[in-house]
Amino acid sequence: MSTVTSLYDEQSAASVSRTRRARPGKRHSPEPRRSPYLFVAPAVVLFVAVFLVPLGYTVYLSTQKTQVMGLGLGANARKQVSAGFSNYTTVLHDGEFWQSVLRALLYGCILIPVMLGLAVLFALILDAQRVRFQRFGRIAIFLPYAVPTLIGSIIWGMMYLPAFSPINSTLNELFGISGINFFGQHIVFLSVANIGVWGGTGFNMMVLYTALRSLPQEAYEAARLDGANERQISLRIKLPMIRPAVIMTAIFSTIATLQVFNEPYAMHQISYGGVSSTWTPLMTIYRDTYTANDVYLGSAESIVIALLMFVLSVAVLRLTNRQIFGGEAKS
Amino acid sequence: MKFPRPAKGAVCALAATALVAGCSSSGSTNTGSSSNSNSKVTLTFWSWVPNMDKVVAVWNQSHPDIQIKFTEAAGGDAELAKLLTAGKAGDMPDIAQIEYQSLPTMVTNNYLADISSYDSNLKSDFPSGLWNQVTLGQSQLYGVPQDAAPLAFFYRTDVFKKYNLAVPTTWAQYASEAVQLHKDDPSIYMGDTVTTDAGLFSGLSQQAGAQWWSTSGTSWSVGINSTASQKVASYWGNLVQEGALDSQTAWTASWDKSFSSGEYASWISAVWAPGDLASQAANTSGDWAMAELPQWAAGDDVDGAWGGSATSVTSDSKHAQQAAEFIAWLNQSSQGTDLLVKDGSIYPASLSAESSSSLPASSFMNQSDFYTLAKQFSASTAAATWGPDVNVAYSDFGDDFASTVKTEAGYLSALDKLQNSVIADMKSANFTISGS
């Protein structure tokens, strides 16, 4: 039986492809294959111009270094020479650089679960039936995302400063707790992650909420007929169905974690040591490239971070994929 | 002139974003292709001096053939980073304001034009110490000094009177008064620790006799952890350890508040301080006076500097001669310096401007002999040689002193760490370093 069906399928497929192939033959153009290339050309040109060329240039710069002659004060006292892989050796042996990577990862470990957890929670609440102030809630949660991170970070920084902190004075009035140092060795991670959560939750909530709105309503109806309440629908129906969106936000957040710059950079200016100038990998790159004027070392660091980011994204993708399949097998 | 106000968190962070957002913003350089000195040229100019646009407007009116297009830059450190980046792109402005300590960094990158053939005749009108800063002891000239920034002791006359404090003439006296004052009133400090700004600390080391950099032949020496610097670090480390001084970060809103609320009775700063105090603690107008920086040995008259800057022509300029003409007008002619003093509230480096009667009395300070004193401090400033990587040193200074424990031992170890990282940075660029 099955062989017959498959034979039949093959035959019909073959006939379809025959007819398809026959048609353009009637108006045979001399260069039939030009148009596909024309269609992809803009994308390829852009990809090469804004991605491959800069990447190649960065790789080139990362193999160069500055060499100074004598005091370095004459007109030709400084030149660019080939450095081989010495910049990479420097990066790989730079304890401070790897500490900045670890700090960024630790920051991500705090940020991602909290931010995505809240985003999922808010999205589900807003999507649930009979919620008041839905429109207002959506905008209110989304609004911090519209504030440039740098501005947000400066405002939060003000709130962390001991002499101004409304958080400290409130805690002091209510509970008699005083003098929390928001830039302390460990608390500083929470302080910085808090800004990330504040600014990022709204965006992720929007992505998830949009995914929720596009789900078919029939599934909910069916669930309701089976006696499921709103909470069960949220957890058992909606959440599994928006899993791809959750994964996407997780990957974006992971990439953003290693790239975190604005929040800690704004904190750096005021924290008196809580956030050093090399607190995150991008801050290290910024410091080496611009402050220390070593674009070659900065390039090597950028390449290393790009590779790390790639590995991390693939890891997150694989991990979450397995989870999906695991989840499907169970149900 | 160092205007550390822009170094404050907010502004500086904004400036940095502007920097990240694009070095292309400086793309207005020299669109005119002709370098013929008779045709009309437009020169671009970066500076952070307040109201510099007004000064430039006066020049533009009387010089139709050399038009200056002014762009307000962030403070010294931020502008240096931006210049270094623009320099790589061959996109620097024609003229730039550069702090003295940053000149060697610019020069070793070959980013400054030698204007000795245009402006060397101005030499006699500037203190030799400052002139040495713009020549780096060579025959070339890399800029014309604009302002001098000798350190001074600024104090609240009302607070000093209330607690019966005498103006300290020695550091020993300063220390004992700081301890006493905080004991008498725990809500008041003599001031903050001087270790949150590298420029101030290096100025104090300069007073103590340290040479953070020096050259001999073709090799550099780094003396950041020299005995003189260690003396300074121990002194302040001790005071902070005792709790006699406040240890918060300078140039934050919270630090401003300590001045306006009267929490700080004094400030070790430079002669540009009144301008800053007027904005961060406007309510204390008339309460401040200036005195000589306390001395290590009674009867001495040695000072250090905190910032101060020159105006330079960059190597990207195609019109060095016209640029040099503008710079000479700005920093040496009486019209230029008068405007700088009046609108930019700087303390001029030019000797003729220094003794000009047109210097306005500072309305903020209760100090009629302000300029007489400033001139005296300027003359007693110890000579300084800056290294080719002050940018690295100042950035690392912040990290090293901030992350260390606030004790004498902590400050000393931060100083050692700084010495090592500066030497490592210089070695990686193949500088020859002696004695290490």
Task: Explain this structure.
The complex is a heterodimer of chains A (331) and B (436). Chain A has 14 helices and 2 strands. With 331 residues, chain A is mainly alpha-helical. In chain A, helix 4 packs across helix 8 and helix 11 runs antiparallel to helix 14. Chain B is globular, with a radius of gyration of 21 Å. Chain B has 2 domains: 196 residues, Periplasmic binding protein-like II (D-Maltodextrin-Binding Protein, domain 2, 3-Layer(aba) Sandwich); 184 residues, Periplasmic binding protein-like II (D-Maltodextrin-Binding Protein, domain 2, 3-Layer(aba) Sandwich), CATH 3.40.190.10. The longest helix of chain B has 21 residues. Chain B has 436 residues and is an alpha+beta fold. In chain B, the strands form 3 sheets. In chain B, strands 2-1-3-10-4 form a 5-stranded mixed sheet, with helices on both faces.
Short description:
The complex is a heterodimer of chains A (331) and B (436). Chain A is mainly α and 331 residues long.
CATH architecture designation of chain A: Orthogonal Bundle
Strand content of chain A: under 5%
Most strands sheet of chain B: 5 strands, mixed
Pattern of helices and strands of chain B: HEHEHEHHHEEHHHEEHHEHEEHHHHHH
The fold-level CATH name of the largest domain in chain B is D-Maltodextrin-Binding Protein, domain 2
Shape of chain B: globular
Helical fraction of chain A equals over 70%
